[in-house]
Amino acid sequence: MEKGRRDFDDRHEIQVRKLYCVSRALPTLPINLEDAARSEAEIEKALQYLRQTLRLTYEEGVQMLKDAGVEIEPFGEEIISGAQRVHNAEMLERRAKSCGIDVKTISTYIDSFRYGAPTHGGFGVGLERVVMLFCGLNNIRKASLYPRDPLRIAP
């Protein structure tokens, strides 16, 4: 087959695969197209800051969804996790010592809080988990470039 024709076939095959993935995943995504079309101002208006963090049990969350008319199967895939960093140098030192960690090995990290690193936190998105759910894969290892297991801890 001539080169130009093969390049076309490769692109076509990739497009078909993408289309298959998207068409398979769209019905399972928690996306409302009306919400996606909202302006940023409308979204900000709809979001409310809560003074106290809302905490629900799994059962309460499922019941809220059912009460809202959402039919769901049991779920529980964590996609995003977040945390507030401990920024107290003395507390970090005490905790390291109690865990048997030589404080000298992490002194630059601890010192960063002692000398002015601001209080901070954040969240991380599990990209591999998103890919697994988006593509309807049955195992996260199929979405991971370097999957880990007890026999493989390094690439």
TrEMBL record:
GO biological processes: aspartyl-tRNA aminoacylation
UniProt domain Aminoacyl-transfer RNA synthetases class-II family profile: residue ranges: 33-147
InterPro entries in alphabetical order: Aa-tRNA-synt_II, aa-tRNA-synth_II, aa-tRNA-synth_II/BPL/LPL, Asp-tRNA_synthase_2, Asp/Asn-tRNA-synth_IIb
Recorded coiled-coil stretches: none
GO cellular component, one term: cytosol
Pfam families associated with the record: tRNA-synt_2
PROSITE patterns xrefs: AA_TRNA_LIGASE_II (PS50862)
GO MF annotation terms: aspartate-tRNA ligase activity; ATP binding; RNA binding
EC number: 6.1.1.12
UniProtKB keywords: Aminoacyl-tRNA synthetase, ATP-binding, Cytoplasm, Ligase, Nucleotide-binding, Protein biosynthesis
Localisation: Cytoplasm
Record's catalysed reaction(s): tRNA(Asp) + L-aspartate + ATP = L-aspartyl-tRNA(Asp) + AMP + diphosphate
Family: Belongs to the class-II aminoacyl-tRNA synthetase family. Type 2 subfamily.
UniProt name for this protein: aspartate--tRNA ligase
